[in-house]
Design brief:
By secondary structure, the chain is mainly α. Helices cover about 70% and strands about 10% of the residues. The model has no long low-confidence stretch (mean pLDDT about 90).
């Protein structure tokens, strides 16, 4: 693959990512939430009881950035912090009934966004794109962890 094609692909990824984030933000706002809150709620539905540190790790966020977001979710009655029985310095995170209902309602929004964005794109191309994106993600992680892996 030529360097020009690689540059075009990276540019398209960056631009598409920005557009998709903006589109999701707009759609999430119509449901009274933000994309960042949405991501936290979905992750906690799948992995309730994570500590704040573990959640930050999974979401690849700085813990201090996550704390403010969690504070807002607690204030809105969507999640609760419970003391960790094994570590009194830590809290475990759990959805409230209201938070669980919101994240379940957001499933339909997530489905609508996927349907809108990927309309008329054949499954075969989506599958190929998923594999390519996973390969890119893996490569970014390996280069980030070991700069010697980068092609010079």
């Amino acid at each position: 693959m030529s360097l020009d094609l690689k540059r075009q692909l990276v540019s398209q990824l960056v631009e598409s990512s920005r557009l998709l984030r903006n589109y999701i933000d707009h759609r999430a706002k119509s449901r009274g939430t933000t994309r960042a809150q949405w991501i936290v709620l979905f992750r906690l539905r799948d992995q309730e009881g994570l500590s704040q540190v573990d959640l930050a790790d999974v979401l690849e966020l700085q813990p201090i950035s996550l704390v403010r977001l969690l504070d807002r979710l607690v204030e809105h009655g969507l999640l609760e912090r419970r003391p960790d029985p094994k570590d009194r310095r830590a809290n475990r995170l759990f959805l409230t009934d209201r938070g669980r209902q919101l994240v379940n309602d957001l499933d339909s929004l997530r489905d609508a966004i996927a349907t809108d964005v990927l309309h008329d794109i054949p499954d075969q191309r989506i599958e190929a794109s998923l594999q390519t994106l996973q390969d890119i993600k893996d490569r970014i992680k390996s280069v980030g962890e070991d700069p010697d892996v980068a092609v010079k």
